[in-house]
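Cont'd.
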Amino acid sequence: MTSWLRQLVAALKVLLVATLVLGLAYPLVVLGIGRLMPARADGSLVRVGGTVVGSALIGQPSGGDQWFQPRPSAAGDGYDPLASGGSNLGPNDPGLLATVEQRRQQVAAREGVDPAAVPADAVTASASGLDPDISPAYARLQVARVARVRGLDPAVVRALVDEHVEGRTLGVLGDPHVNVLQLNVALAALPAAAAG
Amino acid sequence: MSATAAAVAQIAIVVAVLAAVHVPLGDYMARALESTRHLRVERWVYRLCGVDPDADQRWGVYARSLLAFSGVGVLVLYGLQRVQAHLPLSLGMSAVNPATAWNTAASFVTNTNWQSYSGEQTMGQLVQMAGLAVQNFLSAAVGLAVAVALVRGFTRSRTDRIGSFWVDVVRSVVRILLPLAVLAAVVLLAGGVVQNLTGVHDVTTLAGGTQHLVGGPVASQEAIKQLGTNGGGYFNANSAHPFENPSAWTDLVQIVLLLMIPFSLPRTFGTLVHDRRQGAAILAVMGTLWGAAVAVTTWVELRGPGAVPALAGAAMEGKEVRFGPAASALFAASTTSTSTGAVNAAHDSLTALGGGVAMMNMMLGEVSPGGVGTGLYGMLVVAVLAVFLAGLMVGRTPEYLGKKVGRREVTLVALSILTMPAIVLVGGTLTAGIPALRAAAISTGGPHGLSEILYAYASAGNNNGSAFGAFTATSTYQEVALGIAMLLGRFVPIVLTLALAGSLAAQRTVPPGAGTLPTHTPVFVGLLVGVVVIVAGLTFFPALALAPLAEALS
């Protein structure tokens, strides 16, 4: 029994030292290093005219037909960072199947295209529910509608989308994507002269 | 470039980085763990804690130190969660309820990092940093300690001492995990992973709505979460959350981090037993199994079979656009092959076969390459079994690395290997078989529902920690039962492995004779791959046939 007691005392002491070093000093040192790159450490915040309008990393709920739309989201009521997560529904789930079909019809109607032309990311929810990106295909699909609602030249909006397409990192990592918030910020900043 | 070509190139980059890193890192870890000199900071820790660093322990005392350390870890982590409301940096969060606190304490101390809670709603910043992340380091260090203790069983001769647990743990942290974690945290920070002490703050979105952004000390936690093959996310969505894993680049870094130490340990092993070919053989076995899992998962996720992917046009439910199916598949196969359990995609929404491979990876016993330390000792235990089976086939006395595999050794190995399947099958059967438990745990019937139950217990029993997220883990029964499954799945094999180390160390080393089976040849690699697959296959095939295979074929 004394052996156990000795072990327990040593265990408690090692844990205490570890908590101070690994649990406090280590994260605080990293916090300090983060101050050297505050834009990143603080969450890649996006400002318009000095006001923060969100994070480039966190998707935002859809804002109406004058904006590019994000993907469907299962985080809370949609894009709620306090409830990140996916639908967790399986690949053959009947409920999910019905939802996907409904979204396909909705997107097709909104964009005035054939349901077959609607890309996969437009009808599926992401794992985080906060996906800041859409596929280049989904962004291009929305060009005509956004241009029409805003009274802009579609060619200008299409060029804006093309500017915002990010290819695979190093040419191979991940998938090509378009950041919706950054695209919408650029859209809002388009000069009136571009109106067609 | 086509999606398939990009997927292959992406895998090739990971393999190339690991190939470059595993030799220097493996050699470094061998030097760090078996050095005869103590660093000044280590001496200081030993003196402060009243530990004699030069007193080697018998296996029983080593095991007692380990169990005491882990037991104290569970108690302190439980306590921290329970008093959270009174701690600073708690963001106004209340005490974690007893069942969840128990489950989480068991989960993080066992390196499982199964999360029945949602990080952003349940855990304040202090509990995340000083509670959860501390165990991320320590549980990984305990894994390394057991691995090096088992290796000493092979390298030492006619002794009852297998090393000092305290020295092994302190060195693992000071010389290996902490320096690498700082480096990794800086790389992740530069890639956009957040590190701040901001709580919930509201912003007015571009379209005029309100969004509650929530920050935290994420980069420091993310680094050790992957490096220590822990897997517990700061946020509920884990590595799918853009604040944890903002880009395809940070995703690659995370995949490399979680594979790095497990794939370097065979080199450490080879160096320590003074026969690097032995390490290369173990590496080949691990690499083969991981490679097969990655190939199948990538292929099936890109192809996207199943009703929902077919209708949507691709398997994008539960996946992030910046990663796409290929990077999600690579992550899923790697996180389940190591005992990490971090996820960058919702595993419940993977294709039936993709989810099945993830489950199978865990059911192999987390040896391909497995967790930090646990992968190596797990694989060496199976290697002893393989040597024994080969000995039976040719009728010779089996020996591995100069140590005879006798009745005592085989008994310990068999018990160790059988522990996990017993936990998974008993735990899974109880939940699947008792209607009230089943109804509370899953909402889907049929093969997918069974997959959700099996996955939960495979994850807990193997200390993986990933989940099919639709499984309801928050009932008191599941919190308690899965907590027990994690503790048994961790500490029963550890005690048996340490007993094996003690038994091997006591033996005299015998020189290889004409009848000795060489254990560095391709034949042995094939044999060991076969034994790993057959042991898991015989145990789990009926269950897999009823769950993911039935769903894939329907």
